[in-house]
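Troubleshooting log. The previous structure file for this entry was overwritten by mistake, so regenerating from the original sequence record. Sequence copied from the archived sheet and checked twice against the printout by T.R.
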Amino acid sequence: MRPDPKNRKFVSSLIEEKILEVKSSIADKDLANLFENCFPNTLDTTIDFKNDNEPDTFVITGDINAMWLRDSTAQIFPYLQFANEDLHLKEMIKGVLNRQRKSILLDPYANAFLKETSDKSEWQNDLTEMKPGVHERKWELDSLCYHIRLIYNFWKITGDATCFDSEWQQTGILIIKTFSEQQRKNNAGPYKFGRITAWSTDTVPGNGYGNPIEPVGLIASIFRPSDDAAIYPFLVPSNYFAVISLKQMAEIFERIYKNYDAVVQCKTLAYEIENALLKYSVSDHLSFGKIFAYEVDGFGNKLFMDDANVPSLLSLPYLGCCEADDPVYLNTRKFILSGSNPYFFKGKAAEGTGSPHTLKNNIWHIGIIMRALTTIDEEEIIRCLYYLETTTVGAGFMHESFDKDDANVFTRSWFAWANSLFGELILKLYNERPEILNKKLVDNSI
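Regenerated output below.
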């Protein structure tokens, strides 16, 4: 079900070899075919790569012709491990980094960008400071964190520091500035957002600044990684992600730039957020003991839920924010995968986390994949693989979400983030637990 070879946007002979290698090790043929379709989907369908004066790669999400900082990082991330063996692939990834850097310098508060500044966005009339080249200006803390995740891991894997030029140093300093502004210690900061819409989660209360918060050191994220407005602006998983990102930036500023002022700023900010998280993010749940809240406001109010979009509470070990056996995380995980989480759904087709973005009773493939990526339980992994295989309903690719009782009812058939993440899961199992891929997939749910 892949595009004809002549119509593929980007081709890596190494990736093609790896697909055949991994596919041959998967006992379940439908799962093997699903991997063959999904893993290269970003390369096949979403890449616009050119290399004139420097590599430049524009990555669409799939069925939306715009580049999200978050999605583009997640789409490209599984290919990083092969960058040293394929220089063409490596240059393409550098092109993503270059494009992301320029986008952040254009507007650090924007979440999605257009290919050309002359292109028009459907959201150009939003009530915020829209600039040419910006597709959407929803401030999502995780957007900047995802760029740091990609560039830091690219550097660590390849040893190539050429992407850290003077322009990236400006980018890193701008990220610190933006994080600090959104701690909102002295004022609400420069960002506000509104949209004329009947969809409540697509606009922002509080005259565009969000619901009230008490400045406690956390960073406000007016929107979630689902692109939905937050209820309490201190989004806990994104703040944990920011701590990791700031520590990675501190290492970059220290080792590459010798900019010790920036190192101190990164470490001080990370320490402040970390301490605030210890105080405000954990609370006693009536049924599950101490767990992480999804959102807080600094006044003591907490929202108990989880959303399938990453960063989520479920994804914290995947992002390196905590250990998978952390007691609070394990309690939180039990909560997330239970009926006490208002966005966990269980039906005839499958069970898994969803999102307010797709309303009630829709399970996200990303949520099922992340569940498998964050457990060592073999039966749980096999159950997730079974759900992933059986709920694509012959389409050959992951979807955004599907109805819990009828997987033929789904949203977004071309959603490259989910396809890449599925490929990442299969590669992880192939490298670390190949015996699981040799097993028959069954619904072993209780």
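The longest strand covers residues 47-51. Archived copy saved in two places this time.
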